[in-house]
Amino acid sequence: MSEHSDKVVARVEQAHTDVADQLRRADTKAASMLPLFGGFLAGVVALARGGLPPVAQALLWLAAIPMMVSVLLLLSAVRPRSVEGARFGFARFAGLVERPSELLEQFEAEESATAQAVDVCRLSVIVRAKYADVRRAIDLLMVGVLLFGVAMAVTAVL
User: Fold this and answer.
1) How far apart are CA 35 and CA 17, in angstroms?
2) Residue 128 domain-assigned?
3) pTM
4) Exposed / middle / buried, residue 131 (Cβ in 10 Å: 0-12, 13-18, 19+)
5) What confidence tens digit (pLDDT) does each residue in 6-62 have?
6) How many domains does the chain have?
7) Residue pLDDT, tens place only, 69-103
8) With helix as H, strand as E and coil as C, how does the chain read?
9) Whose CA is closest to 39, among 147, 151, 141?
10) Considering the domain boundaries, does residue 102 fall inside one?
């Protein structure tokens, strides 16, 4: 077992805190956007059922597609991401519920900084995936809103 300097341990601990904060931020951001995106989608579907010109109705239904996908992406972002049989984190701890002594032995055998560094990497992958889902959801909503605007312009002209 190699020892890590206090400086390295402090940086790993700070990175762990930062990544955990980003994970909470990503979940909060996605969860707060769901009602807004869902509202847009519901509005588009409600308007598409009305007595609008066929071209406008087609554009509204077309607008609903990226909006629906954006809602699904946000749901994906807030969906918990844990792996059954994981080697780290709470999923690993839950697997040792009947054998807490093994957990204590594992903690003693691991270097604290190394274990935290592994957790930082694992959480970073999850955060990156969540933010990618949120970014794609926003992009798709913008496409849907643009199509909605075109549909409203067509309605005004016809």
Assistant:
1) 29
2) yes
3) 0.78
4) middle
5) 888 888 889 989 999 999 999 999 999 999 888 888 988 888 887 889 999 999 999
6) 1
7) 999 999 999 988 765 555 666 777 777 778 888 87
8) CCCCCHHHHHHHHHHHHHHHHHHHHHHHHHHHHHHHHHHHHHHHHHHHCCCCCHHHHHHHHHHHHHHHHHHHHHHHHHCCCCCCCCCCHHHHHHHCCCCHHHHHHHHHHCCHHHHHHHHHHHHHHHHHHHHHHHHHHHHHHHHHHHHHHHHHHHHHHC
9) 141
10) yes
Domain of 42 in residue numbering reads as 6-157
Residue 1 lies in a domain: no
Query: Could you give the CA distance from residue 78 to residue 37 in angstroms, rounded to a whole number?
Result: 14
Distance CA 141, CA 114 (A): 41
